[in-house]
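Take the subject:
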Amino acid sequence: MEKQPKTPKARTMAFQKQIWAFYRGSGRHNLPWRKTKNPYKIMVSEIMLQQTQVVRVLGKYPEFLRAFPTIEVLAEASLIDVLRVWQGMGYNRRARYLRDAAQKIVSEYNGRIPKTEKELRALPGIGHYTANAILTFAHNEPHVFIETNIRRVFINHFLKNKRGVGDKEILPLVEQTLDQANPRAWYYALMDHGAYLPKTARANANIRSKHYVKQSIFRGSLRELRGKIIRVLDEGPKTLVSIRRTCDNDPRTKEALAALIKDKLIKHEKTKYKLA
């Protein structure tokens, strides 16, 4: 983590006061994953929330937990069953990562979610942010991490006149302003404030981040085509001709199939494709 000039204490306190005041009055206190400290349920929510809007996760999260209420149930589930419940979320590889992570946790950790960043990051689909978010939200530990809403808050408050802002510049600010006594709620407050800022600002502060990538439109995308293929193969094995016909002879069908095979979501055996 790069060293940054220490933020003056008065400025830090003023910033914290503003964020806490917003959270008390306008925070999203009723999000279901914020009402639990269960590490498994928090892990599920964090993987679901990767690159996915909260409103979409709100519908799928309770459905997923009804189908797979414990990590042991998820570990024993077939990929087909997990993908079936996951439908509509997009980025289907996350479903496989989640099921595979559950299997590893059950086999290597006796079903208990690891309590260190190193062990968590060794699990499929879990990187720096997700590992530290799980530790913070499940155990109220003061870890330093960043995601899109947190990034927006710090650029907006501390780096207003800069462009090409790297996360290495932001992370020391996150650390300096972190509420050590209540990191769980503090990060909730930061995320909620960051989600609110675009409603009041003229431009998205994250555009000034060097990590900013505009999310592609889903309709007509390769992601949409991949999801359609998953739904088709949920009915049973299909030939390439059959899949192309169902996909309106989309010229990207073979490309989508190759990507799904690479992600270990489907298999190609003899003349037919099927879910892995």
